[in-house]
Each structure stands twice: as C-alpha cells, then as structure tokens.
Amino acid sequence: MKKWKLKGFKELGPLLAFVILAVFTAILNPRFLTSFNLQSLGRQIAIFGLLAIGETFVIISGGGAIDLSPGSMVALTGVMVAWLLKQGVDVWLAVLLILAFSLGVGAWHGFFVTKLKVPAFIITLGTMTIARGFAAVITKGWPIIGLPNTFLRIGQADFLKIPVPVWILLVTTLISDFFLRKTVYGKHLRASGGNEIAARFSGVNVDRVRSIAFMISGLLAGLVGIIVAARLSQGQPGVGGMYELYAIASTVIGGTSLGGGEGSIIGAIIGAGIISLLWNALVLLNVSTYWHNVVIGVVIVVAVTLDILRKRLASK
Amino acid sequence: MKKFFLMTVLFVVTVSFALTIGVIGKSVHPYWSQVEEGVKAAGKALGVDTRFFVPQKEDVNAQIQMLEAFIAQKVDGIAIAPSDPTAVIPYVKKALQQGIPVITLDTDSPNSGRYVYIGTDNYAAGYRAGTIMKEILGGKGKVVIGTGSLTAMNSLQRIQGFKDAIAGTNIQIVDILNDEEDGSRAVALAESALNAHPDLDAFFGVYAYNGPSQALVVKNAKKVGKVKIVCFDTTPDILGYVKEGVIQATMGQRPYMMGYLSVTVLYLMKKIGVQNTLALLPKVTVDGKEDYIIDTGVDVVTPQNLNDYLKEMERLGIPIRF
After folding, report:
1. I need a labelling partner for B41 at 20 to 30 A (CA). Which of A1, A22, A241, B273 fits?
2. Residue B230 and residue B218 in contact, taking contact as beta carbons nearer than 8 Å
3. Other CB atoms within 10 A of residue A49 CB
4. Which of A43, A238, A290 shows the shortest C-beta gap to B183?
C-alpha cells in the first residue's frame, strides 16, 4: 500500500504539468476538448509514447545505453511496409515481417553494444544514418502510395471512439509496465543499470538483459513506423526527423535517469503527452509558428529541471 | 618523352571529347528525380556526360563539397540549386574564375555571378495560387497556410505572392504553420488547425507534401469540398486527391524542364560561347541590372484538366501513374 503511494508521487510532477497545460489550453480555447482534437492528440501521443517506452527500457539498462535510431527506423520501416504492401504481400504478414525486421535491428544493436563493446551512442547513430539512407534508396524520395484500406485502419480508424494507435499504446503500456515492475527481467534490468558490477556478481546476465532492452526499442520503432505509414496513407522517407530526441526527452521528463537503473513507463507516456500536447496547444492558442520550437525547448528544460529539484528536496 | 606527351594529348582529347556537365540538386525527393530525368534525357539527346548529385536532406555544405569536386574535375558546366544562396557564392565565383560556366536552377543565387537562373518564379507561382484561391472562395473566407520552412526563399516568396494576390479581398489568413519538412507533423498541425478554426474555408499547401497532408485531414474530417485546398506540385498522391476532388487546384512546377534546359544551356555555352548563348535568352532588368532568367512557369492542374495534364506528361516521357 505504501509502495503504491510512493509510486504515485514519483510521476506526480510531470502529470501535474500535463494537467495544468491541458486545463490552461482548454480554458483559452474550448475547442481543445472536441473529440476530433482529442483523437488527433491521442494519435500523436501514441507515436511519441511508444518510442519513449522503448527508449525507457534502453536507458534503464545503464552502461550509457541510449538508442538514437528510432526516428530513422520509423521512416525506414514505414517505407518498407508500404513497399511490401505494394508487392501484394498480405497486410498482417507485412506487419509481422516488419516487426521481425525491427526486432532484428534491435538485436543487432544489442550484439554490438554487449559483445563488441561498441558504445551504444555510436552503433545506434550508425543505424540512424543507414536507415535514413535506405529509406531514400528504396523510394528515391517518392512517397509510396495506394496502400490497402485494411492497412490504413491501423493509423486512421477508431474503436469505441478511441483511435487504434491509442489502443496499441494502452496495451503496450500495460504490458511494458508489468514487465518492468513485476517480472524477474524488470528486476534484472534495473539492477544492471543501477550497479552493473553488483548485478553481474549476483548472477544477472547483464548482456542478455541489455540486448533485450535494445530489441524492445527496435520493435517499438518498427511498430511506430507501421502506424505512421498507416496514418499518412503512404510510406514517406522524410518522416520521423528528431523523433528519437523527442522520445529521449519524454523519457527523461517522465523521471527516467539518463544514468540508468531507474525509470518509469507511465512517466515516459506522460512525457510524450506533454510534448504532443505542446505541438497541439501552440496551434490552438494561435502562437506564431516561429515560436513553437522555442517554447517546446524551454518546456523540456523547465520540466526536467523542476523534477530534478523536486527529487533533491524530497530526498533531503 | 615525346611519346608520353603524345599520349597525354590523346588522353586529354578523348576525355574532353564528351562534355561533362554537373548538376547539383537539393535533396532526395520526387521533385529532384524528375529534374534528374530531364538532365539525363538532355544528356542523351546532346551526347553529354551528366553527373547528377543530391544530398540526402538539404545540406548546403554537402553541395559545396560536390561543387568543389566538380571544379577539381574541371567539368564543362555546373548547374546548382543552392540550399543557401549566399553560402555558395565564393565557390560559384571560383568555378567562374576557372572558366567553368555556372547557372542556377530551381533556386537562385543572384549575387554569385552565375550566368542564368532557370526555375519557377516562386513569387509569380504563389501569386497565381492566390488568384485561384480568390476565384474558388469567391473573394472571402479563412485560410490556413502549411509550409515546411519559414526561412527558405521559395517558401517565403510563394507565401508573399499568395498574400499579395488576395490583398484587398475579404480572404483572411488565420494561421501559418511550419512543420519543418516532417510529413507526420504536417498532418498533426493540419488537424489542429482544422479543429482550432471550425469555420475554416481553405488550406494553402506550400511544399509538395503539404497538400496531401491537408487533403488527408479534410477527407477524414468529412469536410471535402467544404474546406478547399490549393497546393503546389504534382506528386502522384496530389493528383490522386485532385481526381477525387479533395484538392481543387495544384501548381505543377516543371522540374523536368529545369533539368533539361540546364544541361542544354550549359551545352550551348560550351559550344557557341557564353555571350552567344546569353544573346539567345530572354533578358530582364532587375533593380536596374540586366539579368537572364528563364521562368519555367507552372501548370495549374484542376479536377477538370487533370486528364489533359497527364497526357501531356506522358507525351514528354515522364508518365505519372497513381
């Protein structure tokens, strides 16, 4: 019981920021609360949120682990799934193939980081460039259009008035949160990130734990690639610019320590919510587009700084 | 020694026999593939060896590196679409000093000393879009503009042209949205805008993907025909929406012609001389200075003339299928 209270407290800061932002926007422009807008916002949160979940696993695993590839992977997998569909591959088979591919890319990162000791920053930076390049190679810049309707539903349809990507996010969040907090793997993950040497001595297979974290991140990037392609009705090589940085920012806003060992899935989703809400609110509040990036950057810095200060005060 | 000299002469003669022309575009994009098609077609027709280069994303530094590489190779002519018109000036001057003719295509760098600019007059094209918007809306309404940049000259000129065309009417621009060339963000912004302005009458899409992003949102919101769309370029997805009547008009630029003409003009400069070539071209006076500009113009594509447009493209050998 006490543990639950503490848990609630940990994500309170970002949650409060999210709520205040939402209320503020809704008061200034009541159209914020239309179902059209909330659905649009939900789809955006799903995109950043899923990437942030993957990033959370990787960052918690410690040892300076970080994944810079998601943004470019979103572009590549989106283009690949569109290409497969154009070749007449069945929708669900195409989706499965892409998920398997992105899982493989995650395993590739894990292998380089754990076995070859290549810094995560470098190997995932490599993928960031390679994936973006391949997306361009496949498409020569042309969007791949004319995708089947069953596929588009993944990104555009609603179920019980809630967009499909939001359902995907909800299910993924529940599974990931359970995975991180209640399973042996989650315990080992946090142990590996918190104190790698101690974890190794107590028999944790740190390499395996870390590799799985990269695989989760890869898989989710592929999932988002599929969602974005379905949302745009096309495979577009130019999407996903800077998404990895938004995902990392969401994760950190949500209370995950960049040093590893500590983090929260729910927090990451709230972080993704704050960034998506900003994109949305700045338009609704008629803020000049010249200021959008300035505001988003300032909010990220303020949110993280306040959270760190709050934690320091709480631990005193 | 004599033999060596002879071989060198032979080598130089054979190498310089086929002219080499380098073309530097802006990014990996359908638009630039069409330019490339035009460049290749002209190269084939004239028997010129063409080198076409684009950076992955807009990157003036990569362009400058390629420009220097072309200068080092002593190519016979260079056409460039500078991502930054001022950054390339010293390198264009360097090429000109070495006797390599340089022209600009798509985007101009007027102070670089380049001989000719071949491309869409973006202000005129934006003005045309504004005029069409005025007709479609009957002179009054609320418009949101979506663009990928608020610093790039082509975006600024199109928007300025559009604004000037609707000046004095009751058409009001309620917001300008910058998605920084991210298609997904363009959709999210169009959704937010449509929601923020329930009485919105039209979107104006400045970059190639803006139109389809807006069309997707308008279609999903079931506001086809209620919210009109005027946009730029003729990618297959745009033409698909034109066919469906979601997009009312699009300004088709002529990238193929830009590529083709660039190679042709550079070829002539080498064959008959720079001044003789310029004498063939339309002369304009800008700020009291004589200049040579070829406006490749735009094709306004509407649901009514779509089929004619497609036939015309097919005839040119660049069929657009969708």
Report:
1. B273
2. no
3. 31
4. A238
Angstrom distance (rounded) from CA B185 to CA B182? 5
Size of interface A-B (CB pairs under 8 A): 109
Q: Who among B33, B150, B192 is closest to A141 (CB)?
A: B33
Shortest Cα distance, chain B CAs vs residue A197, angstroms: 42
Residue of B30, B176, B194 lying closest to A289 (CB–CB): B176
CA Rg value for chain B: 22
Q: Whose CA is closest to B164, among B210, B203, B126? A: B126
Cβ contacts of A136 on chain B, cutoff 8 Å:
28, 56
Task: Identify whether the C-beta of residue A158 lies closer than 8 Å to the C-beta of residue A93.
Answer: no
Question: B210-220 vs B183-196: helix axis angle to the nearest 10?
Answer: 50
Please list, in sequence order, all residues whose beta carbon lies within 8 angstroms of the beta carbon of residue B248, skipping any fewer than 6 positions away. Answer: B132, B136, B228, B229, B230, B302, B303
The SS3 call for residue B222 is coil
- Per CB-CB distance under 8 Å, the chain B contacts of A226 are none
Closest-CA distance of chain A to residue B168, Å: 23
Helix (H, G, I), strand (E, B) or coil at B20: strand
A284·B176 Cβ contact <8 A: no
Chain A nearest CA to B198, separation (Å): 9
In this prediction the ipTM stands at: 0.71
pLDDT tens across the length of chain B (322 residues): 666 666 665 555 555 568 999 999 998 887 888 899 999 999 999 999 999 999 877 788 889 888 988 998 889 999 999 988 888 998 999 999 999 999 999 988 888 999 999 999 999 999 999 999 999 999 999 999 999 988 878 899 999 999 999 999 999 999 999 998 888 999 999 999 999 999 999 999 999 899 999 999 999 999 999 999 999 999 889 999 999 999 999 999 999 999 999 999 999 999 999 999 999 998 888 777 889 999 999 999 999 999 999 998 888 777 777 7
Q: Which residue of A has its CA nearest to B29?
A: A141
Cβ within 8 Å, pair A283-B193: yes
Beta carbons of A284 and B195 less than 8 Å apart:
yes
